[in-house]
Every structure is written in structure tokens, then in C-alpha cells.
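[worker-b] picked up task from shared queue
[worker-b] task type: protein-ligand structure
[worker-b] ligand name resolved to magnesium ion; SMILES cross-checked against name lookup, match
[worker-b] sequence length check passed
[worker-b] input payload:
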Amino acid sequence: MAFQIPESGDAVEDLTKTLGASGGDPRILAVANQKGGVGKTTTAVNLATALAAIRKKVLIIDLDPQGNASTGLGVERAMRKETTYSLLVGDARIAEAIVPTMVPGLSVVPSSVDLSGAELELIDVPRREFRLKSALADVSGDFDYILIDCPPALGLLTLNAFCAAHAVLVPLQCEFYALEGLSHLVKTVDRIKRAFNPALEIQGVVLTMYDRRNNLSDMVAADVRDHFGDKVYQTVIPRNVRVSEAPSFGKPVLLYDWRCAGSQAYIHLAGEVLKQERSLNLERRLSA
Ligand SMILES: Nc1ncnc2c1ncn2[C@@H]1O[C@H](COP(=O)(O)OP(=O)(O)OP(=O)(O)O)[C@@H](O)[C@H]1O
Ligand SMILES: [Mg+2]
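[worker-b] inference finished, payload out:
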């Protein structure tokens, strides 16, 4: 199926207003939460697709040995010659590892199960936290956005993502234990900011799998907004069966069914991220 950009609706109008918001070096965002199954990969894949739909050049780095982002983008295991593992251990340059996807403007560096061994293999390597950052330096200028899909752990892989990124995007599932572990994530970001990457910041928190029939979702959303204030995106990603079906077809939900509530939410999220980038750029210029 050809990639279709939505032609009408509020989400599209919002996005059209924000077209052309970035430029220059890529903005690198780590999509991270050490909690498993909260929507990191879904957010990385679909936010990237929504950004590509408005003609941003986007690269996803699949930094999870599970390889869900690669699979969800239709990159079969046989197509994964050079991977994030090859980058981290220095077996390949990033240009050899980038694979185009069916979404125009969206590419991916796929992962493989070897990546689960990288942590041990790099144990004695100097500056092992900066392996990904060095690899990404080779593509600056080629992309507007680089989204790193992190594994559900705060080990060396996520540490590499935090050292390479400008900011961390945190998907948070609307469930009872949502905030559990989040203070640990925030502390980790602070520690990395102090030790390795002074510019690192939390870009924002995105609430995922929101179920409007469930009061708990509202309570969790209110709680998270109390804690994180305007860091929490207004856009909430609803629990939507189309979102969960799409990866088994090797497609982002925006390609599988762009009209569904989940796709529309990711389009809105992309609009919010671009608006946020515009005001951050302005702040940076004013303080320079
Ligand atoms: N908005 C949604 N509505 C319905 N299902 C969803 C939604 N978002 C994610 N899912 C499903 O929930 C599961 C977990 O999502 P996902 O893989 O994105 O989480 P993750 O944080 O990347 O997981 P992991 O920690 O294992 O990497 C997947 O089966 C996905 O299809
Ligand atoms: Mg994942």
C-alpha cells in the first residue's frame, strides 16, 4: 500500500501550521522507560512515521535486542546485515547499517539479538558510554530527527542512548504502577547529565494506552500531570486495537489505518513535539 498522508482533519491542520519547524543538525531523542511494555517502541515508530509524513527526514535507532522497532517497520531478520550491535562494537559504520523503510523519509538501523551481548563485550572498552554518540556523528546533517528506541532497562545500552541524545522522551502507560520507577529514571537522567552529557533533558512525558472507560486512566493521568506539569504532552495516546495489530503486519499504525484514533493521536503528538522544538529553539537563540 502506498504511504498516504492524511488529507483533512484538525490533526492535519495543526501539523501544517508547524511544518518546517526544525533544521540543521538532527534532534536526537531517546525514547526510554525501564518499565517493559509501556509503549516505547510504538511511540518511537509512530512518532517517527508522523514526522516523516510531514517531510522530516527521520532515523530510528533500534537499540533493543528484541528488535521490535525493526520488525514493526517491516525489516525482516534476513535484511538486518549490519545492526546497532555492529555499530556499538565497531564492526560497521552507520552508513552501512541504515535500512530504508516503506515510509518515505524514514530509515532504521535495525537490531539483532547479538545486541544483548554488547554490554558484556564492551565492559573493558574505554569510553564505552559514547559508542553510539560517535557512530551518530557520521550522519549529522542527513536527518532532522533521530529517535532511539531503548530497551526496558537502564543498562549500558540505554546509557549509550542518553549520552548520544539531546533529550529523553518518556512514554508512560496509564496504569496503577505508572509512576513506580519513574523517579529512578529521572535520577538516572540527572546523573548522566552531571557525568557525561550536560545538555541532556527530559523532553516530555507521553501518556499511552489511555482508556477513557476506565477511571484509573484519568487518575493516573492527573497524578502524572501533578508530578511533571507541562512536561506532559496534552496529546494522550488511547488504547486502540489498531495500534496493537499494526506491528504484526510490519507496518506503523499510520500506514495500517491512518484514520484510527491511535494514528490521529500520534499525528497530534508529532505536532506538539514540533511546536515544542520551535519554542526550545527560540529559547536557545535568545539565551545564546
Ligand atoms: N495505544 C496502544 N493501544 C493498544 N495497544 C498498544 C498501544 N501501545 C502499545 N500497544 C501494545 O502494547 C504492547 C507493548 O507496546 P510496546 O512494544 O510499544 O512497548 P515497549 O515499552 O516498547 O515494550 P518493551 O519494554 O518490551 O520494549 C505491544 O503489544 C503494543 O502493540
Ligand atoms: Mg520496545
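[worker-b] attaching auto-annotations
[worker-b] DSSP finds 13 helices and eight strands in the chain.
[worker-b] releasing lock
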